């Protein structure tokens, strides 16, 4: 059975090739290469980030609905609990219907999705989830600066958002904060999954077991912080370090990324 597990996982992630071929990927923005000093870790040397492409908007309910219609193994009544907990897509009426709230949330970010589901969606678009460093690097941008590390107003606005209760209906993705790169909703909309491990591991299981997908988390870390002003990064760490890959949360969504060698013309 142990030998069969990789094959089972691969089959569970397979998507219909027609989705990647026929469904146009959403618009992407180019994030230029550079370096940044992560909040986490004892080594505070700048970390290089290669140029990459990032979805302009988080994935919406409408986009995820199209995905599950093409890939029924990811529908709410059919997904295996290994890959999504009991709250997966709990805000939808049925497998192929958002329900009475469709007019209000179709263009809002999808939430209540697991890391596994987010990963499968991106792969079906010929994309991937962004890494922790890619996400955090892009999230440092304000409206006018690629790096707003020293912008007190940027931090204050982020704190104000985190202090607000969740609205009954999340706003359309186009109504969210637009940063220097033209990316919407990195701050002020929903938390987002990333591809790799939480940077501050609470246990060493994942490292000792060969980086199993089942032990991947979303996140950014905050131990030995290099920038104590970036309190929202501490909040991300506190939230994300508690997650497991099959967890689903009412304010946790995702967006996809691509390596920059894929030309913008192909989007």
Automatic annotation (TrEMBL):
GO terms for molecular function: formylglycine-generating oxidase activity. InterPro entries: CTDL_fold, Sulfatase_Mod_Factor_Kinase, SUMF_dom, SUMF_sf. Residues 1-22 form the signal peptide. Coiled coil: none annotated. It holds the Pfam family FGE-sulfatase. Keywords: Signal. Residues 47-257 form the Sulfatase-modifying factor enzyme-like domain. It comes from the Bacteria. PANTHER family: FORMYLGLYCINE-GENERATING ENZYME, SULFATASE MODIFYING FACTOR 1, 2. This is Sulfatase-modifying factor enzyme-like domain-containing protein. The lineage of its organism: Bacteria, Pseudomonadati, Bacteroidota, Cytophagia, Cytophagales.
């Amino acid at each position: 059975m142990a030998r069969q597990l990789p094959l089972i996982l691969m089959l569970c992630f397979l998507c219909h090739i027609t989705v990647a071929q026929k469904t146009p990927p959403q618009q992407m923005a180019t994030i230029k290469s550079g370096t940044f000093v992560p909040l986490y870790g004892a080594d505070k040397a700048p970390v290089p980030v290669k140029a990459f492409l990032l979805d302009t908007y988080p994935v919406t309910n409408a986009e995820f609905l199209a995905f599950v219609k093409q890939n029924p193994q990811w529908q709410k009544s059919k997904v295996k609990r290994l890959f999504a907990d009991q709250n997966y897509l709990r805000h939808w009426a049925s497998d192929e219907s958002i329900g009475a709230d469709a007019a209000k949330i179709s263009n809002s970010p999808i939430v209540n999705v697991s890391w596994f589901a987010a990963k499968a969606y991106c792969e079906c678009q010929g994309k991937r989830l962004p890494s922790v460093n890619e996400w955090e690097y892009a999230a440092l941008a304000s409206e006018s600066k690629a790096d707003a590390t020293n912008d007190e107003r940027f931090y204050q606005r982020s704190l104000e958002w985190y202090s607000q209760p969740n609205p009954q209906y999340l706003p359309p993705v186009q109504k969210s904060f637009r940063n220097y790169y033209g990316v919407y909703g990195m701050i002020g909309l929903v938390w987002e999954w990333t591809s790799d491990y939480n940077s501050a591991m609470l246990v060493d299981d994942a490292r000792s077991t060969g980086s199993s997908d089942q032990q991947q988390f979303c996140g950014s870390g905050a131990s030995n912080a290099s920038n104590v002003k970036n309190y929202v990064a501490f909040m991300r760490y506190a939230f994300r370090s508690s997650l497991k890959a099959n967890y689903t949360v009412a304010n946790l969504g995702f967006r996809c990324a691509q390596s920059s060698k894929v030309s913008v013309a192909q989007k």
